[in-house]
Amino acid sequence: LSVNYYQQSCPNVRSIVSQQVNQIIAADSTMVPALVRLHFHDCFVRGCDGSVLLNSTANNTAEKAAIPNLTLRGFAQVDQIKAALEAQCPGVVSCADILAMAAQYAIAKVGGYTWSVTLGRRDGNVSIAAETFVNLPSPFVNATTNLNIFQSKGLTVKDLAVLSG
């Protein structure tokens, strides 16, 4: 992963994503937490690989269709960002990187903490609904269980409070 991963292949990637996120939030400010949550749910299952965006098939129920993800929003907005990127840099930017940048720009847009998102994630091609139940925190278990899930991902009690808020 690198801050400059797309410097040669898609030099305007950050400005394109930033512009799209600004448009999305201008149209609906509730998309800020939705974009953050979408990235969070992606990263907790199989790592930050975009697998939460994959659709179910005849032989597999994907993460997107799992009970913990049924209230996720932002899929159309990610498609909007992807379309803008495809118009400039076809076949270059991963959906996993789009999720990471969209979450960061959404937080920055409302005056939150900013950071340099490293890029170069590869999109996954496996998405299994059952994996959400063991990898995502749940409102139906105690705080210790959810804290253990966060700690297994290298996160803290503060991270649990912020992301599960």
UniProtKB/TrEMBL annotation:
<feature type="binding site">
    <location>
        <position position="45"/>
    </location>
    <ligand>
        <name>Ca(2+)</name>
    </ligand>
</feature>
<feature type="binding site">
    <location>
        <position position="63"/>
    </location>
    <ligand>
        <name>Ca(2+)</name>
    </ligand>
</feature>
<feature type="disulfide bond">
    <location>
        <begin position="10"/>
        <end position="89"/>
    </location>
</feature>
<dbReference type="InterPro" id="IPR000823">
    <property type="entry name" value="Peroxidase_pln"/>
</dbReference>
<dbReference type="Pfam" id="PF00141">
    <property type="entry name" value="peroxidase"/>
</dbReference>
<keyword id="KW-0106">Calcium</keyword>
<feature type="disulfide bond">
    <location>
        <begin position="43"/>
        <end position="48"/>
    </location>
</feature>
<dbReference type="GO" id="GO:0046872">
    <property type="term" value="F:metal ion binding"/>
</dbReference>
<comment type="similarity">
    <text>Belongs to the peroxidase family.</text>
</comment>
<dbReference type="GO" id="GO:0140825">
    <property type="term" value="F:lactoperoxidase activity"/>
</dbReference>
<feature type="binding site">
    <location>
        <position position="51"/>
    </location>
    <ligand>
        <name>Ca(2+)</name>
    </ligand>
</feature>
<dbReference type="InterPro" id="IPR019794">
    <property type="entry name" value="Peroxidases_AS"/>
</dbReference>
<feature type="binding site">
    <location>
        <position position="137"/>
    </location>
    <ligand>
        <name>substrate</name>
    </ligand>
</feature>
<dbReference type="InterPro" id="IPR002016">
    <property type="entry name" value="Haem_peroxidase"/>
</dbReference>
<keyword id="KW-1015">Disulfide bond</keyword>
<dbReference type="GO" id="GO:0006979">
    <property type="term" value="P:response to oxidative stress"/>
</dbReference>
<dbReference type="GO" id="GO:0020037">
    <property type="term" value="F:heme binding"/>
</dbReference>
<keyword id="KW-0408">Iron</keyword>
<protein>
    <recommendedName>
        <fullName>peroxidase</fullName>
        <ecNumber>1.11.1.7</ecNumber>
    </recommendedName>
</protein>
<keyword id="KW-0575">Peroxidase</keyword>
<feature type="binding site">
    <location>
        <position position="47"/>
    </location>
    <ligand>
        <name>Ca(2+)</name>
    </ligand>
</feature>
<feature type="site" description="Transition state stabilizer">
    <location>
        <position position="37"/>
    </location>
</feature>
<feature type="binding site">
    <location>
        <position position="42"/>
    </location>
    <ligand>
        <name>Ca(2+)</name>
    </ligand>
</feature>
<keyword id="KW-0349">Heme</keyword>
<dbReference type="InterPro" id="IPR010255">
    <property type="entry name" value="Haem_peroxidase_sf"/>
</dbReference>
<feature type="active site" description="Proton acceptor">
    <location>
        <position position="41"/>
    </location>
</feature>
<keyword id="KW-0479">Metal-binding</keyword>
<keyword id="KW-0560">Oxidoreductase</keyword>
<feature type="binding site">
    <location>
        <position position="49"/>
    </location>
    <ligand>
        <name>Ca(2+)</name>
    </ligand>
</feature>
<feature type="domain" description="Plant heme peroxidase family profile">
    <location>
        <begin position="1"/>
        <end position="165"/>
    </location>
</feature>
